């Protein structure tokens, strides 16, 4: 599997053999960076990137919906719950989610330990915004799936990176170059994948590349983005507050956007996100989809 590491200034002090991936915009942890005060959107005409966005819709499907693939159903004693978000890898597992009505674990696929019953199922039914009423459930053992390759990290920012000076491509040179990148006036983020350093800046990519070539002769890509990691982090925090329990996960999987998974979206949450932060900055996906 191709290795890919996204780097932040906090990781730059580490040696290359101990470079750690730092996800700047996850829903877990308190890793928010400081962000300058944004211009009043009413005065600028641009979507706000700070503040407290309001008016997030709470769509409810008209008909039957189902989970996208298999999800964990868990009952720790208070009734089964549909775990649409993260599941802690303990034994028994730990997770939570919407209450399920009309669900039975059946004779296939369920496990029990320490008073907890759980299993993986594809579940179909109706969702009223609070409770999922089950009309059909298929355990993992009886559910046909097409396995998709595991998600990798970020790809290099270009496909034509070349080595210009092999004598300036040591681990020490790498560390020095990442430090130099973080000091660029328009620095946004950087990552290492396929042996290529990719650096994103908000302005003057040619000047940034010339500066980085003082310390790095290996393969290098410099690209431009509209927002820094700190700005994306601020948007992610706003998103979590505005969507509340609707939001299952959110984070940055590309240098200039956020991916957010909600319980259900009929397109209205995506439209709201586009109107709030600009088209394409937040990409919304739905854990529940209309049943065919």
Layout: helices, strands, pairs:
Elements: E1 4-7, H1 41-44, E2 65-67, E3 71-75, E4 81-83, E5 99-101, E6 111-113, E7 116-127, E8 131-139, H2 171-182, E9 187-193, E10 196-201, H3 205-212, E11 220-224, H4 229-243, E12 247-254, E13 257-262, H5 268-277, E14 282-286, E15 288-290
Parallel strand pairs: 5-8, 10-11, 13-14
Antiparallel strand pairs: 1-9, 2-7, 2-15, 3-4, 3-7, 6-7, 7-8, 9-10, 12-13
Task: Report a brief summary of the structure.
The protein has 292 residues and is α+β, with helices and mostly antiparallel strands. The protein is built from five helices and 15 strands. Keywords: Signal.
Strand-residue fraction? 25-35%
Give the biggest beta sheet.
Answer: 8 strands, mixed
Gross morphology is elongated
Mean pLDDT comes to 81
Number of helix segments?
5
Low-confidence stretches: 1-50, 147-151
Structural class: alpha+beta
Q: How many structural domains are formed by the residues?
A: 3
Helical residue percent band: 10-25%
In sequence order, what are the helices and strands, one letter per element? EHEEEEEEEHEEHEHEEHEE
- The radius of gyration over CA amounts to 22 Å
Structural commentary:
Keywords: Signal. Residues 1-20 form the signal peptide. Residues 33-64 are annotated as: Disordered. Residues 41-57 have a biased composition (Low complexity). By secondary structure, the chain is of the alpha+beta class. It has three domains: 4-27 and 152-224, no CATH class; 71-139, no CATH class; 229-290, Histidine-containing Protein, Chain: A, CATH 3.30.1340. Helices cover 17% and strands 28% of the residues. The protein has helices spanning 41-44, 171-182, 205-212, 229-243, 268-277; strands at residues 4-7, 65-67, 71-75, 81-83, 99-101, 111-113, 116-127, 131-139, 187-193, 196-201, 220-224, 247-254, 257-262, 282-286, 288-290. Strands 2, 3, 4, 5, 6, 7, 8 and 15 form an eight-stranded mixed sheet that branches. The longest helix is centred in the last third of the chain and has 15 residues, at 229-243. Mean pLDDT is 81; it is low at 1-50 and 147-151.
């Amino acid at each position: 599997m191709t290795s890919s590491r996204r780097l932040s200034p906090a990781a730059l002090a580490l040696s290359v053999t101990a470079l750690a991936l730092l996800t700047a915009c996850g829903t877990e942890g308190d890793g928010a960076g400081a962000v300058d005060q944004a211009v009043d959107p009413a005065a600028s005409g641009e979507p706000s990137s700070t503040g407290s966005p309001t008016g997030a819709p709470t769509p409810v499907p008209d008909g039957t919906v189902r989970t996208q693939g298999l999800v964990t159903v868990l009952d720790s004693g208070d009734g089964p719950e549909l775990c649409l978000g993260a599941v802690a890898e303990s034994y028994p597992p730990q997770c939570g989610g919407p209450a399920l009505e009309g669900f039975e674990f059946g004779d296939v696929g369920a496990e029990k330990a320490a008073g907890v019953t759980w299993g993986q199922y594809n579940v179909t039914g109706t969702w009223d915004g609070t409770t999922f009423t089950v009309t059909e459930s298929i355990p993992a053992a009886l559910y046909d799936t097409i396995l998709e390759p595991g998600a990798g990290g970020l790809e290099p920012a270009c496909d034509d990176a070349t080595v210009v000076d092999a004598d300036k491509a040591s681990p020490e040179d790498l560390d020095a170059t990442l430090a130099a990148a973080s000091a660029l006036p328009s620095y946004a983020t950087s990552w290492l994948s396929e042996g290529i350093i990719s650096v994103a800046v908000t302005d003057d990519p040619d000047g940034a590349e010339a500066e980085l070539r003082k310390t790095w002769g290996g393969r290098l890509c410099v690209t431009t983005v509209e927002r820094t990691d700190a700005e994306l982090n601020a948007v992610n925090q706003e998103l979590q507050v505005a969507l509340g329990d609707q939001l299952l996960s959110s984070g940055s999987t590309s240098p200039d956007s956020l991916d957010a998974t909600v319980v259900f979206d009929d397109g209205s949450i995506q439209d709201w996100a586009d109107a709030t932060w600009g088209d394409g900055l937040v990409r919304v996906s739905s854990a529940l989809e209309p049943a065919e």
